[in-house]
């Protein structure tokens, strides 16, 4: 029986056969390379979208080109993909290295990464061989020179070996009473390095959630039995004492007030330590949008009062910003917008944003028929506690959608409050003066609305820009009084979207959305046209004209007192940059207070996504499946962000 005892996870001495390498490479599994695709460099506005450029290679001293032959002896496609993705030799093959020493260093580093990739898939007896110019890496001199023809041939051969399972699992010290099975540590279970490290972190986290900031693994022993392909794991854990928060110190602030940063963490001295609260504090600081990075760490020891000091380190962003954007749809026309903003107006993360937009540019040649908007937004966080925010907005609009013509001046001010990381409530007071011409009021009608919008939002999505799992729900109530016409009504809306990723890499994501709304207390002609419900277009039912679904008078949409919409998308990631999205949308708008599901319109199509740091770039093409006489034959939409 071949049993190898490996104490700890120290960095190994690399050898050709994995049994001779220490299991320290478990810790390297978290830094495996992501998939790298071959592509030419391409930039927009100075932002590199993909590939490498000649400028990237210009800094390489004594550039040396090489070509990789990659051989993985396995029929497991997932394992093969994980191994190949871990290889920088493969992923960066088109970029030259810095001379012979650069190639040697890259090859040695690659072998470590490949070992880590195997360990991350529970293969502990595999063999990795790398040869350069026909010579094994271990047989090459440290100063070997490859002065032959370029590209220099590099061969990487991986024999993954057997998949190990967990054998005996022993938890000692303060973890003796913890069930390893609760964290996935069970005989016959997953022995992958990622799973073991995750379990270890979970055990420490469980102790820290008891208020023990100094909990840690004091020792570990790993025994690999190659005869039985099992891995025995022994962890010795020290919990440490229960403690409260001590003094919070901040480093890295310059423009942002340091005391305000401490206040916004919400880590009150003396209150019981909680890793969940620390995560919420970090997210709260990032949400201020004045910091590009935030780390919050507890000290290594308690202070004289028995509390744990907290250390906050931040990096500030540029406080002033400006930008421009554009959208296009064959059913809604083209639009442009510009904005200027300040993230830290008075030193305490107060936001000011001024913006304007022009729409329907390609729909009409008359300047008076374009859509114009100008707005000012102000936000001040922390007004009634770190979880609160004051907001105020003012907007002037002169718009001409198909359903109505409107001039309006709107303003509102209110408070939002985070109940927790996932739940937010808000309340505000809004005043809206408008002059509107529509099918029900062809001579025009003026309104002065005073309302109190109330909103509840739940959001546990893993990524707000491109979610792969989670759920978002929104409930909205807006009691409104029309001071000029003496009418009162209540607008109700509800919306939910869910996301479910399939596979280890979430290559497929199922995304669905449902939305409904109703206006109670007033007739259709008493509700201003811009407050009624509409459907159709890029943000609702694609394939139909903007506001093109619902009741009409003489071919002109009137909007409705109720609506219902649903969408289903299958988001397929071709690679880490491009995606394809087939979708189906459906919606109905009714002049009655409750939706009429006998008049549902359905559209379907396909879209392309290109992922960028500021969100997916979206292009969708859709056709109406049950069009009416005035509906378009197709719809084309382009913009930033997922459809929902």
Automatic annotation (TrEMBL):
Record localization:
Membrane
Q: Which InterPro entries match?
A: Bac_surfAg_D15, D15-like
Query: Any idea where the Bacterial surface antigen (D15) domain is?
Result: 344-644
The positions making up the signal sequence are: 1-33
Annotated TM spans: none
User: Which keywords has UniProt assigned to this entry?
Assistant: Membrane, Signal, Transmembrane, Transmembrane beta strand
Protein name according to UniProt: Outer membrane protein assembly factor
């Amino acid at each position: 029986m071949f049993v190898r005892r490996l104490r700890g996870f120290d960095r190994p001495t690399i050898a050709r056969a994995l049994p001779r390498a220490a299991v320290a490479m478990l810790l390297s599994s978290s830094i495996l390379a992501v998939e790298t695709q071959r592509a030419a460099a391409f930039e927009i506005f100075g932002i590199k979208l993909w590939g490498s450029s000649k400028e990237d290679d210009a800094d390489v001293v004594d550039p040396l080109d090489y070509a990789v032959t990659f051989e993985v002896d396995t029929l497991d496609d997932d394992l093969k993909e994980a191994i190949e993705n871990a290889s920088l030799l493969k992923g960066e093959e088109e970029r030259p290295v810095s001379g012979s020493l650069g190639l040697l260093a890259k090859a040695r580093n690659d072998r470590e990464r490949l070992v880590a990739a195997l360990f991350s898939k529970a293969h502990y007896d595999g063999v990795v061989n790398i040869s350069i110019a026909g010579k094994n890496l271990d047989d090459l001199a440290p100063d070997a020179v490859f002065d032959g023809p370029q590209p220099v041939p590099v061969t990487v051969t991986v024999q993954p070996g057997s998949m190990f399972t967990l054998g005996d699992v022993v938890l000692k010290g303060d973890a003796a009473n913890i069930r390893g099975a609760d964290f996935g540590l069970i005989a016959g279970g997953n022995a992958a390095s990622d799973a073991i490290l995750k379990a270890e972190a979970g055990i420490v986290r469980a102790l820290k959630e008891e208020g023990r900031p100094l909990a840690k693994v004091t020792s570990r022993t790993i025994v690999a039995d190659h005869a039985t392909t099992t891995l025995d794991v022994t962890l010795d854990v020290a919990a440490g004492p229960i403690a409260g928060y001590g003094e919070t110190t901040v480093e890295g602030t310059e423009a942002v007030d340091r005391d305000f940063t401490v206040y916004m963490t919400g880590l009150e001295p003396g209150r019981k330590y909680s890793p969940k609260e620390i995560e919420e504090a970090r997210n709260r600081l990032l949400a201020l949008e004045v910091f590009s990075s935030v780390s919050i760490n507890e000290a290594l020891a308690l202070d004289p009062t028995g509390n744990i000091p907290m250390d906050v380190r931040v990096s500030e962003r540029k406080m002033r910003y400006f930008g421009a954007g554009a959208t296009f749809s064959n059913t809604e026309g083209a639009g442009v917008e510009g904005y200027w903003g300040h993230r830290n107006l008075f030193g305490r993360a107060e936001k000011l944003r001024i913006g304007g937009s022009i729409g329907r540019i390609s729909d009409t040649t008359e300047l008076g028929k374009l859509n114009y908007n100008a707005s000012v937004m102000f936000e001040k966080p922390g007004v009634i506690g770190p979880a609160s925010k004051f907001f105020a907005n003012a907007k002037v609009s002169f718009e001409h959608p198909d359903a109505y013509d409107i001039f309006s001046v709107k303003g509102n001010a209110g408070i939002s409050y985070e109940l927790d990381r996932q739940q937010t409530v808000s309340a505000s007071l809004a005043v809206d003066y408008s002059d509107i011409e529509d099918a029900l009021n062809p001579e025009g009608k003026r309104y002065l609305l005073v309302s109190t919008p109330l909103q509840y939002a739940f959001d546990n999505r893993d990524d707000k820009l491109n979610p792969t799992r989670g759920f978002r729900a929104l409930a909205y109530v807006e009691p409104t009084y029309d001071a000029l016409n003496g009418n009162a009504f209540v607008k109700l809306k509800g919306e939910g979207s869910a996301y479910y990723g399939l596979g280890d890499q979430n290559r497929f994501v199922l995304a669905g959305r449902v939305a409904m709304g109703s206006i109670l207390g007033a007739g259709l002609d008493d509700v201003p046209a811009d407050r009624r419900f509409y459907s159709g277009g890029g943000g609702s039912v694609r394939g139909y004209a903007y506001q093109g679904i619902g009741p009409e008078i003489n071919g002109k949409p009137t909007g409705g007192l109720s609506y219902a919409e649903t969408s289903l998308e299958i988001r397929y990631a071709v690679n880490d940059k491009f995606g394809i999205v087939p979708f189906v949308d459906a919606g109905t708008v009714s002049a009655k207070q409750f939706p009429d599901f006998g008049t549902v319109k359905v559209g379907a199509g396909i879209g392309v996504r290109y992922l960028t740091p500021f969100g997916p770039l979206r292009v969708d093409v859709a056709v109406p499946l049950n069009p009416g006489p005035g509906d378009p034959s197709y719809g084309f939409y382009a913009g930033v962000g997922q459809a929902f």
